[in-house]
Predict the structure.
Amino acid sequence: MKRHVNMIDQQRRTKGIDFDINPLLEELGLHEIIQTPVPCGITDDDAEEDAAEDRDAWN
């Protein structure tokens, strides 16, 4: 599930897809992996580095 959340966050950053998965996670009782949604459409190198750091933190 953590990988799925990271994939959604990465799509928000790179493709600008605006989908907040947090309500679904809450409904499933997965409170420990709820994060603040990342801004949409950030495509600079810093965002990619942040995404890699986020993935490493969750794995």
Summary: The chain has one domain: 2-58. Residues 2-58 form one domain. The mean pLDDT is 77. The two ends are 11 Å apart (CA to CA).
